[in-house]
Design goal:
The complex is a heterodimer. Chain A is an alpha+beta fold. Chain A is built from 17 helices and eleven strands. In chain A, 44% of the residues lie in helices and 17% in strands. Chain B is of the alpha+beta class. In chain B, the strands form two sheets. Chain B has a six-stranded mixed sheet with strand order 1-2-6-3-5-4, sandwiched between helices. Chain B has a five-stranded mixed sheet with strand order 7-11-8-10-9, sandwiched between helices. Classes of the chains: A alpha+beta, B alpha+beta.
Chain lengths: 469, 450
């Protein structure tokens, strides 16, 4: 294929400097400096101390309870704005499950009381804004990322979407239809099916056992009036935490928020379900036969909730077991040493309500029994023997490194600030987190394992006949 | 082994500090970073081609204490003989397994120990391996990179274990309707070229791949003159270059591989395939054979893609507001010699959606697009680039890929060419390449819908 456009500016090719270093030269340099090295004694370099990730954050709580966190940064042209608010299955009535997801979807697509959807899309996108809204089990989010020149213009539209959604009948109906069609397509992906199976097995009647998008029955019953009422209940200032990260003037940002939200009245926070997850008195197996190529397994035990003091301990344990990277115990033992699976890992779901830690694995149906026993053995190993100091230290180092890496982007920094503040950790949890992880001992891990790893829930999606019992 | 590794690191750090006194003078006079004045997320960067032909790209980004290294090898499944289909991917699985100095699992453990991660991917014409870690451990990351490149051990027991793992991967891919569909459309659109193949291989071809075959393949293609190493993040360019030069100084060049010549057939008409599957919704895909990003038409094709699916104001977004779809996307992927443009939708009303996609494309061809749409597409793409530019990992992968495809200078000029695309350009490329009359259409449909 001819490359015409790249020839247009061929003068630039003169800048292309390709240096060829002689290997001989390299050797000569090394020989020349070797004596100096030997004299220096090869002292190991000190690693830099962790830097506070939140030291320059400005926290402004308005009289009506709205919280605004601003982290000025000057490295990028990007500015990330995030809103977090309590909503989702934990706060929804059983007959209205899915209302948060539908509301968030209609915020995006239905326009506002003064602007048609297409106007909003075009105006936001003219300044290059990317934005979205979502809702999960414990909270919902509306985010926007935009470059500095278009920031205030985009902010005006972003506020409008949040404060004055139109919830037009026609759009609500489309949103409901979309939700129903998504429900139909969920089982096209075996991982979805096995995750739902596990969730239902683990949570039973607890709201977390429901799908965040709702059921056929609840979605069909939702109306525009329901959405308007729910919006009024959720989008109250004392239920909203905003974060703004990027190249901004904090005083100007505070003024913009004051103008948009200053007149709003404080309201009553949405109340959450007090239901408990079923107590496990024995292991529970949920098997769904299906004509799939592999056997999909999720095996999980209860785990501490997000604010419980054992949560950091479980986080360290989860890292050793199977999260992050290719060198955890599950990966080393079941994939590397025994070749039992391509995909496997573990996940610790720290929720506001009942939480769990689970291992997930996709294996050949004939390996099912070995895989299951292998996973259980790895969980039980934490109860039976303390982790070695070396493994623990390595894991801590990994968690700390990962934690720093997870805050690489302005959007990621904004997400963590907002979520931590909303969930009650405090926006500066990023800094405390590292010392909490540091304090975890092998004895803590064994104690927590013994406390939680008694009975498990196992969900399996596999071809007929995979499980005999 | 651990002590040896530490000793090497200590020794090297001091050597480097002295070597820099000399090398920094050499580099600063001979190799100014390219693109100081360019408006591009990739500029400035520094490139060094070693005596053995290996290219090093370094880009400093100091806003987060992170380093990412991407090793790009110019080989993928398009280079494989049919009886060894999947061998590129098999090599990829063995790469970080272990070396003469590092036992099985040790590479992953070392990187994880400092909070980093490793992974890899095989494509039709390249294979890449990446290591991402806190930048305080740049020495370790570079050492692991060079060690795996030169001393991967291909342990026989590990080969057998990994074969089982790949068989699992095959099963997993077959369970995903999206993957099934994209595989099928690529095979059809690239028919008659070396790109029309199944990257992962089959149980039969995997059975043919033994240690000897892996080593032969590795030694043939993993030669320095077929490799680009991109290092991005909170690093010092000159230290990185000096370190890699030392680590790779014994890496011997080989014969640079190339693909056999092939003809790219021009589409002569539409084709339509309906496949029944164990699914509950319909998946529709329109596929078009398009030129690679080296073509003069490529920037306009990217703008066209964004006009179709770049944001919420994009044309395919109408299908949401019409309540017709639950998911959609438009993709433009480029290989070295050719590209694929595809439009995808998940729906319960396939006939209507197929017709609407045809109408949307026909409208663009017949009536053109507006200035506003082109401006929005450019703005959305620009923010997208800025978002990618925040992540060292994304930047390292993109930089090695573009350098491998042609050169980073070409990519920078591509960004400039994007800014110059007009609405007429968009209409012209739509008519030339994305004409619904010449689409290859795949429909995956639920079995019960007979």
């Amino acid at each position: 294929m001819r490359s015409v456009w790249r020839k247009r500016r061929c003068g630039l090719l003169n800048h292309k400097k390709q240096i060829r270093f002689s290997l001989l030269l390299g050797v000569l340099i090394l020989l020349a400096i070797l004596p100096a090295y030997l004299l220096a004694g090869g002292k190991e370099e000190e690693r830099p101390a962790p830097v506070s990730l939140t030291a320059n954050v400005i926290r402004k709580v308005f009289p009506n309870g709205l919280t605004l966190l601003i982290k000025p940064t000057y490295d990028h042209e990007l500015i990330a704005v995030n809103l977090y608010a309590r909503m989702g299955t934990l706060y929804e009535a059983p007959e209205q499950v899915g209302i948060s997801a539908l509301m968030q979807r209609c915020l995006l697509y239905g326009g506002t009381t003064s602007r048609e959807p297409h106007i909003i899309y075009c105006e936001l996108e003219k300044v290059g804004a990317h934005w979205n809204a979502s809702s999960g089990d414990d909270y919902g989010n509306v985010w926007m990322t935009v470059t500095k020149p278009g920031f205030y213009r985009a902010l005006d539209f972003y506020f409008d979407l949040i404060l004055h959604p139109q919830f037009a009948e026609w759009d609500v109906e489309i949103g409901k239809k979309e939700g129903l069609e998504k429900l139909k397509g969920i089982d096209d992906y075996p991982l979805n099916t096995v995750s739902i199976l596990f969730s239902q097995g683990f949570y039973g009647e607890h709201p977390y056992g429901r799908l965040t998008i709702g059921s056929e029955e609840t979605i069909s019953a939702l109306t525009r009036d329901d959405l308007v009422a729910w919006h009024k209940k959720i989008y109250i200032p004392n239920n909203m935490v905003f974060s703004v990260v990027g190249n901004v003037d904090p005083a100007e940002v505070i003024t913009e928020f004051e103008k948009a939200f200053g007149q709003m009245k404080k309201g009553r926070l949405p109340s959450r379900s007090q239901k408990k997850a079923p107590t496990l008195k024995e292991n529970k197996l949920l098997y769904q036969p299906r004509d799939v190529g592999g056997a999909y397994l999720i095996l999980g035990y209860p785990a501490p909730n997000n604010l419980q003091k054992d949560a950091p301990v479980m986080e360290v344990l989860n890292t050793i077991l199977g999260s992050g990277g290719m060198s955890n115990r599950l990966f080393s033992e079941l994939r590397d040493k025994r070749g039992l699976a391509y995909a496997l890992g573990s996940s610790y779901q720290q929720m506001v309500g009942p939480s769990f830690i689970s291992a997930i694995m996709i294996t050949a149906p004939e390996n099912y029994q070995a895989a299951r026993e292998g996973i259980v053995a790895e969980f039980k190993r934490f109860c039976e023997e303390p982790v070695s100091q070396a493994e623990l230290e390595n894991t801590k180092k990994w968690l700390k490194g990962t934690y720093v890496m997870a805050q690489e982007t302005t959007a990621a920094q904004g997400r963590l600030l907002g979520v931590y503040e909303l969930l009650g950790y405090g926006y500066d949890y990023s800094d405390q987190y590292l010392s909490l992880i540091d304090a975890v001992t092998p004895e803590d891990i064994q104690r927590v394992a013994k406390k939680y790893f008694n009975h498990y829930v196992l969900a399996v999606l596999a071809p007929e006949g995979t499980i005999e019992e | 082994m651990f002590n040896l590794s530490v000793a090497i690191k200590k020794k090297f750090r001091v050597i480097i500090s002295f070597a820099l006194i000399f090398i920094s003078i050499t580099l600063s006079t001979i190799s100014p970073a390219f693109g100081e004045d360019e408006e591009s997320i990739f500029a400035p960067f520094t490139r060094v081609t070693l005596e053995n032909g290996l290219t090093i790209i370094v880009k400093e980004m100091h806003f987060a204490p992170i380093v990412a290294v991407d090793i790009r090898v110019g080989v993928g499944s398009a280079y494989e003989p049919p009886e060894l289909r999947g061998i590129s991917h098999f090599v990829e699985h063995m790469f970080f397994k272990g070396t003469k100095r590092r036992q099985v699992g040790e590479i992953a453990r070392e990187i994880k120990a400092v909070g980093g991660y490793i992974n890899a991917g095989t494509s039709l014409d390249t294979t890449d391996y990446y290591v991402v870690a806190p930048s305080a451990y740049t020495d370790l990351v570079l050492d692991v990179t060079a060690d795996a490149l030169q001393h991967s051990s291909f342990d026989p027991a590990e080969i057998d274990r990994e074969r089982k793992v790949i068989l699992e991967e095959i099963r997993m891919r077959q369970d995903n309707p999206g993957t099934r569909m994209s595989d099928q459309i690529r095979l059809e659109l690239l028919k008659g070229t070396p790109y029309a193949n199944n990257i992962i291989g089959t149980a039969e071809t995997l059975g043919n791949i033994d240690r000897e075959a892996l080593l032969t393949y590795f030694q043939k293609y993993y030669v320095p003159n077929n490799i680009i190493v991109a290092v991005v993040g909170d690093v010092d360019t000159q230290i990185v270059i000096a370190h890699l030069m030392e680590l790779l100084k014994d890496f011997k060049p080989g014969e640079a591989p190339s693909l056999p010549a092939f003809e790219i057939s021009q589409p002569t008409g539409s084709a339509r395939f309906e496949i029944e599957d164990d699914i509950s919704q319909y998946f529709i895909c329109f596929g078009f054979s398009v030129p690679s990003f080296l073509s003069e038409d490529s920037p306009a094709l990217e703008i066209l893609r964004a006009i179709l699916d770049g944001g919420r104001s994009a044309r395919l977004g109408k299908l949401y507001s019409e309540g017709l779809i639950i998911n959609k996307s438009a993709e433009y992927s480029s290989f070295r010699e050719l590209g694929v443009f595809s439009i995808f939708a998940a729906t319960q009303t396939p006939t209507v959606v197929e017709k609407r996609i045809q109408e949307i494309l026909s409208e663009i061809i017949e009536e053109g697009v507006s200035e506003e749409e082109v401006a929005i597409a450019k703005a959305i793409i620009r923010t997208g680039y800025a978002m990618e530019a925040e992540r060292a990992f994304s930047m390292a992968c993109m930089m090695s890929r573009y350098e491998e495809l042609s050169s980073l200078e070409d990519r920078i000029r591509y960004e400039q060419a994007l800014a110059e695309v007009t609405k007429e350009d968009v209409q012209r490329v739509a008519e030339k390449y994305v004409n619904p009359q010449q689409a290859t259409v795949f429909i995956l449909k639920p079995k019960e819908a007979k």
